[in-house]
Amino acid sequence: RAAALSRPPAPPAEAPVARATVTDRNGEILAVSLPLTALYANPRQIENATEAADRLRTVLPQLDRERLIARMTGERQFAYIARALTPREMAHVNALGIPGLYFEEAERRYFPQGRTAAHIIGGVDVDAQGIAGVERYFDERLRGNPSERLRLSLDIRVQLALRDSVQRAITEFNGIGGAGVVMDVNTGEVLSMVSLPDYDANDVGAATADQRFNRVTVGVYEPGSTFKLLTASMALEYGTVQPWQGYDASRPIRVGRFTINDYRGKNRWLALPEILAYSSNLASAHMAAAVGVNRHREFLQRMGMTSRLRIEIPETALPLVPGQRTWRELNTMTIGFGHGISVTPLHIATAGATIVNGGILRQPTILAQPPGTQREGTRVISERTSELMRRLMRLVVTDGSGRSAEVPGYFVGGKTGTAQKTGPRGGYLENKRIAAFVGAFPMYAPRYAVYVMVDEPKPNARSHGFATAGWVAAPAAGMVISRIAPILGMLPEPATPEITRAITMPMNGRGIPGMAPAPAPAAAPARPTGPRPAAQPA
Fold first, then answer.
1. Which of 67-81, 256-270, 277-291 has the highest mean pLDDT?
2. Which of 33, 153, 195, 225 is the catalytic position?
3. Which of 69, 235, 328, 360 fits as disulfide partner to 241, beta carbons 3.0 to 4.6 Å?
4. Which CATH architecture describes the domain 156-503?
């Protein structure tokens, strides 16, 4: 027998433990362990390391000569030479007959989807230990039960569509990155999670820090006007505003050295539907102030906006929020329109799902749930508030800044959000912004929430010099919905009288079809101490 096949005088290092296969919700393989042959050396048995290295490189020229010589020199009895040999390479090495070389049967983790779901799957090291994503989170389970498949909530078809749509938006607007989420609003299952740029899960070591960075769960950004959905939900829930009521948005708000303005404002009093459709910072600031600092902070805590989300991947970030002792009315006013607080895109997607699903907060999950499963959740807003918000979100798409997200027959609702990025030392960066859209469909019976974000988009000719969310993120979200809805078995529907009645919101907030009068508020509105809100009937 050739020396490479002879029994080693000392047992080799323990082979990597087999790992269970990971699949998407439909059984498509995302991670699998494949058998391979490794080559290792016993340096004590190699008489001439230089000669052995030169001969070995005639078969394996990719090996570094100096490093190879070093590994085959010394008093140790075991050193890996190559982790994965093809059958042809194995035969050629065997034919060399070099004493002190041995073969070892092992396994290699393979990710058939490559980049497509890298931030969800994560990756493994050379010893097949999970180092990121579900491979790390479920490392013990995957190693302990190699025959039991791990089934994720991910739908690789939806993942491919979302990734392509976000990449198109990044390319069109010359952004530095982007993110996207598709979530089942009733179960919290994440069907798709995209962070760009990404990396090949088969070669984690070659990925840069920016490629490994998960913008969906680790990136914290000021959410901008998408956060107005939470402000409106809060005000409706506390009874400090009704759809036909509103606030003065005719003049800037000055608090100390700070001034709050509207972007292309209407310069007049606005009813609640107009506040969201036209995305008024001024009216949103007044609306938050009317609720009061303490109740505002408590509401955001209940919505999960001040804590780390619980999801089955280890890479998650804590939101950046003012401390309880430093949270003042100015903080409440700016947070009311999405500035002065930083959360992850997954926080916003989860909030969007909560607002439209009847008001139940369910932590997002990456694990597939059995059909018909009712996951536990916490009621954070009433069904009435949720219904009003669905109508308001639909209005944003039909008559407001989210028009480009509309997909005929799917009755999309949502909210745009454009926010300046903060610098590493505080303050805002000039011409560096986040453009995002969060929405759901169909609004008469929501099933899926969609979030799309582009990081630092640049204006172009098609957008007439704008790089705001209505031009950047909303059309990308519309593209996502148009592509994934048929995949998920949803066909477009006509606007029947029943559907129209269920999703209509007049711009003045009066005469909402099929809605009962508002109940009396549970508590008296908090009296603001700064700029006075100008709530009045329409």
1. 277-291
2. 225
3. 235
4. 3-Layer(aba) Sandwich (3.40)
- The answer to whether the CB of 108 falls within 8 A of the CB of 125 is no
Determine whether 225 is an active site residue: yes
* 3 state DSSP class of 314: coil
CA distance 414 to 443: 9
The first and second tokens of residue 401, run together, are 């800044």
**Do the Cβ atoms of 394 and 413 come closer than 8 Å?**
yes
pLDDT tens-digit series, residues 475-517: 999 999 999 999 999 999 999 999 999 999 999 999 998 776 6
pLDDT tens digit string along 160-172?
999 999 999 999 9
User: Which pLDDT value is given to residue 14?
Assistant: 52
Q: Based on the number of CB atoms within 10 Å of its own CB, is 86 exposed (0-12), middle (13-18) or buried (19 or more)? A: exposed
Listed by start position, the domains of the chain span: 3-45+54-61+77-151, 156-503
Give the pLDDT score at 15.
52
Determine the average pLDDT of the residues in 323-350. 97
- Taking CA atoms, 360 is separated from 103, 363, 409, in Å, by 56, 10, 26
Best CATH choice for the domain 3-45+54-61+77-151 from the list 3.90.220.20, 3.90.1310.10, 3.40.190.290, 2.40.50.100: 3.90.1310.10
Q: Which residues contact 64 (CB under 8 A, 6 or more apart)?
A: none
pLDDT(5) > 50: no
pLDDT per residue as tens digits for the range 312-334: 999 999 999 999 999 999 999 99
CA torsion sign, 250 to 254 to 255 to 260?
Answer: positive
Q: Are the C-beta atoms of 71 and 41 separated by less than 8 Å? A: yes
| C-alpha distances out from residue 490 to 28, 98, 398, 471, 504, Å | 21, 63, 21, 26, 22
